[in-house]
Amino acid sequence: MKARIFSLGDDLEKIISDINNASWDASNQIFGYSESALRNYLSMEGVIFLSCYSSGGNDEKLLGISSSRIEMKPYNNDCWLYIDEIDVCMDQRQKGVGKFIMQKLLQLAREHNCKEVWLGAESENHAANMLYNSMNPDEVSEIIGYSYRIKI
Questions:
Q1: pLDDT at position 137 over 70
Q2: Element housing 67 (H / E)
Q3: What span, in angstroms and rounded, lies between the C-alpha atoms of 99 and 13?
Q4: Closest C-alpha among 48, 23, 17 to residue 35
Q5: Residues 2-7: what's their mean pLDDT?
Q6: How high is the mean pLDDT of the chain?
Q7: Where do the N-acetyltransferase domain residues begin and end (predicted)?
Q8: 11, 46, 49 from 3: Cα distances, Å
Q9: Beta bridge partners of 49
């Protein structure tokens, strides 16, 4: 496996094609990525869009993606990495892809001098929770999340 971090100068058309043609299911909540949306995302400061590919020559295959961003606390200048999404292709689950992506994100957090990494997972996502627990987190919280849909 190999990780690739995308920036505005990369071939976004290819990654979009790879994402839109990969094997996702409803749990991934991946709905028609577009080049313009990814370009807008990548233009924001501190974002990290990481993909994981098989490392097999010319036939490399997308295995998973993640989106995260480096944030700064407003009171002590500490940086932290917020992991928004880790999505593993349906046909690649239970093969180490999620762990590989997490390891790369933790490495990136260290390289950016982040003091901590934060991510959440739905309580019913047992596979993700087993993975995150297996990576020896410093804290596991019971958090209730709220979302508000804004009518425009």
A1: yes
A2: strand 62-72
A3: 26
A4: 17
A5: 96
A6: 93
A7: 1-152
A8: 15, 18, 10
A9: 6, 67
CA distance 68 to 70: 7
Domain-by-domain residue ranges, the chain? 2-134
85 neighbors 66 (Cβ within 8 angstroms)? yes
- Cα 24 to Cα 64: distance, rounded to the nearest angstrom: 10
The CATH number of 2-134 is which of 3.40.630.30, 3.40.47.10, 1.10.760.10, 3.40.50.1860?
3.40.630.30
120 and 145 in contact (C-beta within 8 Å)? yes
Share of the chain above pLDDT 90, in %: 80
Q: How far apart are CA 130 and CA 93, in angstroms?
A: 13
Q: Residue 107 — pLDDT band, cuts 50, 70, 90?
A: very high
Would you state the structure tokens that stand for residue 64, as one six-digit string? 């998973």
Tokens coding 60 = 């490399």
Residue 57 pLDDT class (50, 70, 90 cuts): low
CA 88 – CA 116 distance, rounded (Å): 23
